[in-house]
Amino acid sequence: MFGWEFPPNISGGLGTACYGLTRGLSKLSDVDVTFVVPKAFGDEDQSTMTLIGASDVPIINRKLKFRDFTRALECVEVSSSLVPYVDPEDYARQRSYTVAETKSWIETDSQGKVKFTGKYGPDLLAEIARYALVANVIAQDREFDLIHAHDWLAYPAGIAAKQISGKPLVIHVHATDFDRSGGRVNPDVFAIEKQGMEAADKIITVSNLTRQVVIDKYGVDPAKVVTVYNAVEPNLKRQTGPFKKGINEKVVTFLGRITTQKGPEYFVEAASRVLKDFDNVRFVMAGSGDMMNRMVRRVAELKLSGKFHFTGFLKGDDVLQMLQMSDVYIMPSVSEPFGISPLEAMQARVPVIISRQSGVAEILTNAIKVDYWDVDAMADAIHGILAHPKLSRMLARQGRKEVHNLTWEDSAIGVRRVYQSAVQMNESVLN
Amino acid sequence: MKSINLFFQVHQPIRLTRFRFFDIGNSEYFYDDYQNEYFTRQATESCYLPANKLLLDLISRHQGKFKVTFSISGTAIDQFKIYAPEVLESFRELAATGCVEFVAETYSRSLASLNDKTEFRKQLEQHANAMAAIFGVRPTVFANTGLIYSDEIGAMVAEMGYKAILAQGSPHILEWRSPNYLYRNALQPSLSVLLKNSQLSDDLAFRFSDPNWSGWPLDAKKFVSWLNKIPEQEKIINLFMDYETFGERQKPEAGIFDFLSALPSAVFKKSSFKFSTPAETVEQYQPVDVLRASHPGYNGKETAQLSDWLGNDLQREAFENLSKLSHQMHNCDHASLLKDWQYLQTKDHFFYMSTNHVHDDHSLVAFNPYDSPYDAFINYMNVLNDFTIRLERFAEKEQHQMIQYKKKILAFA
Q1: Does A393 reach chain B within 8 Å, measured CB to CB?
Q2: Mean pLDDT of all residues in A148-169
Q3: Which residues of A touch B315 (CB under 8 A)?
Q4: Stretch among A73-82, A290-299, B55-64 having the lowest mean pLDDT
Q5: Mutate to test the interface with A, among B21, B321, B371 (most CBs of A within 10 A)
Q6: d(CA B335, CA A235)
Q7: A369–B22: do the CB atoms touch at under 8 Å?
Q8: What is the mean pLDDT of residues B138-164?
Q9: Does residue A394 belong to the interface with chain B, where contact is any CB pair within 8 Å?
Q10: Which one, of A261, A231, A249, lies nearest residue A332 by Cα?
């Protein structure tokens, strides 16, 4: 399996999804996973993973033990430091505020064949190409039945592995560039995505919304594309009672990257509508992103600053605390292939409002769905939840129950089915 | 001779417009005219007109031996007047054959029987008047919303002079009994109780076109063979369903009209049944036993009581908020407020808030104009809040006028 993130170092839904899925697959007795990631960029990784000097060993190979899982998951790392979900041109800019911290770059030499340059340059595409080379080498050294590549950054690696091994390739579309760019598709990224989809024997999409994009925009045969919904890790942390708010007011939360894709401006407009008639409420925009400054200005322009707060990027426990403080969680995404975050909010018993333009809207019943552009509907839904405790309680209760039933094991079973059909197809071609 | 009573209930709710919280206190019109016209017209074309035509045909073909009974809601009548007058006309034609009975119900197909006797009586009276005005005959039989029944509801209806009531044959009422007999009310023995035969009714209404159902495909001959299996002493079969079953829920391609068309002759040729209407049935048969139902019954599925409309917190919250206004409304004489009040009571608004996912009749859910029960609740509560504000304003104005009037009188004195 090729992916760009692996927990605990994640900067978005991709890492969470890869992690969950891998854990789900590890519960299936007939699937063994080797996960290949470029060097992850978070701090925690240093405590759980050994980093070996690249000059002599190009690939770090170690076992990652999962508690209460029968099988061990093998994690192979090659070095890199990348932010997923970004445009190559945006990369330099974006790094300045993402959680990612650049680790010292390791020069890697793989059996004398592959040479990694020392520094991580602004050229993402070259990095992807290098990753593909390493993938090629890994594919030669290992025994496996199938290659699974997550999102465009890993497609070239998947293709390279397929070329050398002749094994079937499944690509997993967590997002397309149409989602990330808000329509301004980067031609290089598009080309890589299309290449990956063409080379793939089977394509997994995280929602029917994304499946349709893959079919319509990339011209892929519908028969090749299968939707397998994401799930959410059960929240095992015992919640230490309800979090005590310092204020006796309702809190409405947006939590995510402040970028075009996530629709932060609709959240601001909806807030302004609610605040006109409803005083006992505060709005929080938690996260960071290239639209943040614009949002700060807009909030000031609407004179909402007294009731509207920006927290900056939140991590780990802060996220949980923010959720526990919240009375409403909103995901107004313009385009969201899936969207795991509302599921996490629902786990924390927070009523959620999600845009219809999200994959997760296809499976959720106990959430209020609105069109992202319909700020009136959004404002109305916020008001409804705040004004009717019965409604809020029911959403919280039913929502938690619903999310409890979305398990990665079920997703893994769906993925395994795709594996089986890809392997079968491949065998019938070979015979 | 045994009797089949074919009941069709005709209903169109007055659907609410999208009403935002910032409209509360500013807007006065609650209804989505476009949707109301659209759905009424759709049902008119696919069901009411073709089905009425077929029934008219069957009645004349069988020279008065084929009979049916209708329960048409007031909200449907109101909308036919605006959007589909030809439907009313064709119902009048059916009425003129003398083979069609019209029963009474609550005007806006409300849940008033559960919480508001005054309102219940008022609505029943209003509906009976409308039936008399349109079809020239005053109903003597009552069918409650969702066939909700209890001893007390039956007694109220009996006190108003009705001879019979149609009730849901749900297990908690039936217990060991068969629905295929005539019963009498536990408090008012003069009132006969007819019970819906759920099995056979739902075979048509819900299962007819389901290829996974063991009875599929169903034709009139097979249906009559089922009727013939009913024990000889069980003489009355009440088949009760939404009229929209014909052409809307069950599509013409599935053969539902062919079924209906072939049913009378199959019954006449192959069975000892005849068609009759509830009023005739009550004349002809004696109740065999007292039916006891200390609490209200339930419509569709056997799982829970009233759960389609009052099964969850949202539904109960909305219904309680609505009910709070009833006292004030009984003293209100403002025509448009009264009309809105009535339309807001229609059971469909509560049905849209249902989280009861045990429905096996998905088609019912398809009529839901809302995305989710939550959405339906928010919209309804916004409308209800606006209505409450209007009512308060009206009351203040009245009071103000009264004070002015008294002052005037005092000034003269």
Answers
A1: yes
A2: 89
A3: none
A4: A73-82
A5: B21
A6: 55
A7: no
A8: 95
A9: yes
A10: A261
Question: Is A73:A64 a contact under the CB 8 Å cutoff?
Answer: yes
pLDDT in tens, A172-187: 999 998 887 777 888 8
Of A379, A380, A390, which is closest to B314 when you measure between CB atoms? A390
Q: Do A379 and B312 touch (CB under 8 A)?
A: no
Q: Which of these, B80, B82, B78, lies nearest to B91 by C-alpha position?
A: B80
Contact of A371 with chain B, judged by CB distance below 8 Å, is answered with: no
Q: Do A380 and B374 touch (CB under 8 A)?
A: no
Token couple for B241: 């369903």
Query: What pLDDT is attached to residue B177?
Result: 87
Using DSSP, how many helices (H) and how many strands (E) does chain B show?
Answer: 18, 10
CATH numeric code, B2-291: 3.20.110.20
Cβ–Cβ below 8 Å for B22 and A387: no
β-pairing, B100-102 vs B141-143, is unpaired
Say if the Cβ atoms of A380 and B372 lie within 8 Å. Answer: no
Please report, for residues A288, A335, B117, the alpha-carbon distance to residue A183 in angstroms, rounded to integers and kept in the order given: 21, 10, 60
**Separation CA A136–CA A154 (nearest Å):** 12
Tokens of B145: 């919303």
pTM: 0.85
- Suggest the residue from A357, A380, A392, A405 to mutate for an interface test with chain B (most B CBs closer than 10 A): A380
Q: Which residue in the block uniquely carries the two structure tokens 């308060």? A: B392
Query: What is the value of ipTM here, to two decimals?
Result: 0.83
**Least confident segment among A42-46, A254-258, B127-131, B353-357:** A42-46
Strands A73-78 and A60-64: what pairing? antiparallel
H or E element in which residue A313 lies: none
- Say yes or no for a CB contact (<8 Å) between B381 and A388: yes
* Residues carrying CATH 3.20.110.20, chain B: 2-291
